[in-house]
Amino acid sequence: MKQGGVWHRRRVLQGLGASALGLGLLRAPHAQARRFEPVPGDWRRFEVTTRVELQQPVGAAQVWVPLPSVQSDYQQVLGHQWRGTAAEARIVADERYGARMLMARFEASASAPSIEVSSVVLTRDRAVDWQRPVSVAVDPATLRFWLQPTDLLPTDGIVRDTARRIIGSARGDVDKVRRIYDWVVHSTYREPQVRGCGVGDIKAMLETGNFGGKCGDINALFVGLCRAVGVPARDVYGIRLAPSAFGYRELGANSAQLKSAQHCRAEVFLREHGWVAMDPADVGKVMRQESSRWIRDPRDPLVAPVYAGLFGGWEGNWMAYNMAHDLALPGSQGPRLAFLMYPQAEHASGRYDPLDPDRFKYSIFAREL
C-alpha cells in the first residue's frame, strides 16, 4: 500500500467528517446549483422482465434468474409470472439470505432453451431525517448477523486496522459511518474498465492500494469497514429501472434495455435511525462519468448534492434483488457467487459467463405502470 499519499488523505478526511453534512456551504459561490434531494413519498409501480436464451448448451441445462426479494419501506414486491420452454420452472431461495430466484431446468433435447420472467414491484425514494431520531426495535441476532465477515468481506486484519484509523476518535455510530463514507469517496474511484460491477475483494483492495472499481467493489469496501468497527451494514444488490428525476445521467437507467444497469447499494444500521441508505460508489460514478472531465473533488457543484444526498438516501428509480453474499445457487454443482445480480446458467460443460454477450444472451426491460 502506498502509505504516504493514502494515509495523508485519510488524515484530511477525519477533519472533513465533522463538517461534511454542511456540504452546501462548500460549493463554489458562482457555480450553477444542482439538486439531488430524494424524499420519501408516492410509490412508483414497475414491471421488470428478464429473458434468457441459452446459446448452444451441451446436454441438460439450468438457469437462475434473480428476483426482487426485498420487502421494506422502500420496496414492495407484488408478484411474478413466467413462461418459456423449460421442462420445469419454480421459485427457489438460498437458505442463508433468502435471496429468491426463478430456477428453470431444460432437457438436453430442448432446441431453443429460453425463459422469461416478469415481476411487478413498488419503489420509492429514501431519505433519513437526521434531526428526528426514531425508536427502532431490532432483534439483536439480526444485527449480529450483519456484522459477520464473508469470504470477500473480512473484518479483521488490514480491514479492521484501516477502519480504526479512519474513525479515529469517533464514538457515535453516525460519526463513525460519516468518516468511513468520506474516506471511501475520497480514496476510491470509479474505474469504467472493470467488468460488470466488480468483484468486491476488499482485502485485496487494501493490500494493493488499488482503489479503482465499481459498485460491487466500492460499496463492499464501505460495508466491510463499517462492520469492522461494530456498525451493522449490508450490500443491497439490484438494478436501475428509470432515469433520475434530478437530471443525473449516471444515476439512472437511460435505455430501454437494462442489461448493464445492475447496481448495488449499501445500508447501515444506526441506533437512532434504523436501517439507513448509503451509496458512496454512485458519488464516485458522478465524479468520473457525469461530465466530460474527471472531477476529483466531491465538493464540486455538480457532485456536492449527490455527495450529501447519498449519505442517508437514494432515489426510487432502482429495484433491490437481494442482500446475499457467498451465495450457493440451489441445485448447482458450481462455485459460490460473490453476489447475485446477473442471471446465471449452467450446462454439462460448466457455468456460463453472464458477462459474455456472445455465449450468454439475456435482456432486461422495465416499464412504469
How would you describe what is shown here?
The protein has about 375 residues and is of the alpha+beta class. The protein has 2 domains: about 240 residues, C8orf32 fold; about 120 residues, Immunoglobulin-like (Sandwich). Helix 1 packs across helix 4. It is built from 8 helices and 17 strands. It has a 5-stranded antiparallel beta sheet, with no helix packed on it. Strands 3-6-1-17 form a 4-stranded antiparallel beta sheet, with no helix packed on it. A 4-stranded antiparallel beta sheet has the order 12-11-10-14. The radius of gyration is 21 Å and the shape is globular. The chain is about 25% helix and about 25% strand. The N terminus is likely disordered.
Amino- and carboxy-terminal Cα gap: 50 Å
Radius of gyration: 21 Å
Residue ranges: pLDDT <50 for 5 or more in a row? 1-31
Estimate the strand proportion. Answer: 25-35%
CATH topology (fold) name of the largest domain:
C8orf32 fold
CATH class of the largest domain reads: Alpha Beta
The CATH architecture classification of the largest domain is Roll
Strand order of the largest sheet: 4-5-2-15-16
Helix content: 10-25%
How many domains, as an integer?
2
Biggest sheet features: 5 strands, antiparallel
Structural class: alpha+beta
Continuous helix count: 8
Shape by Cα distribution:
globular
Order of helices and strands: HEEEEEEEHHHEHEHEEEHHEEEEE
Let me know the number of strands. 17
Mean pLDDT, rounded to whole units?
Answer: 91
